[in-house]
Amino acid sequence: MKVTKQFKLEVAHRLVSSYSKKCQSIHGHSYLMEVTLESEHLNDDAMVMDFGEVKDKMNSFFESFDHSLIVYDKDIMLPLVMQIESLLHIRLMVVDYNPTAEGMAHHVFREMINQKLPIVEVRVQETLTGWAVADRPKPFYGESVKYYNIPERFRNAL
Prior knowledge:
Layout: E1 2-13, E2 27-38, H1 51-65, E3 68-72, H2 78-88, E4 92-95, H3 101-114, E5 119-127, E6 130-135, H4 152-157
Parallel strand pairs: 1-3, 3-4
Antiparallel strand pairs: 1-2, 2-5, 5-6
């Protein structure tokens, strides 16, 4: 059985070395984050997990992103953005990846594993027509799977 919970966020970001030059400017999106949980067995309340419990476990994580500016820690603009942040008290989130929808989906997936939630998929919708999905790791052609905090039950399924 699978269940999905949605979170809505308003986030600004800037992409480093993007195909689209427009995305190299600071801009924002109304993100829709969907997290899908799965369990073979329902709990005593006949649920995979109560939606309220998912919200309680993940809300502070998503709140840290909401109405913030996400900047890659290797972005040459970071020192300038940090100066502006100290003057204007903007919400700044510095991350270790280019803040694409793909990077954000992977980040959310890792956090849900850290929260010990039975996560199987994270969908980050950036626009009405574009989104990225992170799910259980699968090997690329000819590569072995590298496990990064992946629960044992997922490893056996690969």
